[in-house]
Write the structure tokens for this entry.
Amino acid sequence: MTVIVLIAAPEGLRGHLTRWMVEVNAGVFVGTPSKRIRDRIWELLASRIGDGQAVLVEPAANEQGWAIRTAGKDRWYPIDFDGLILSARLRR
């Protein structure tokens, strides 16, 4: 399963995602796209997110069973801490 969260996304991105995934709450999308489709969706989101934020959680072959990608300004960054993925934010 894949989960995408959009925060302050430009118009049209949410509508585009509904072609491939279900919007279960405002800005939260869930689905099971193939890896090829998921990568193409992420390329589109990362290039068009602008001042917003995007987070993608996808299946992965690690201990947690998932991996995370982030894009946009003022975002959380995934940090690998001895095989455990944690989220960090840069200090201002």
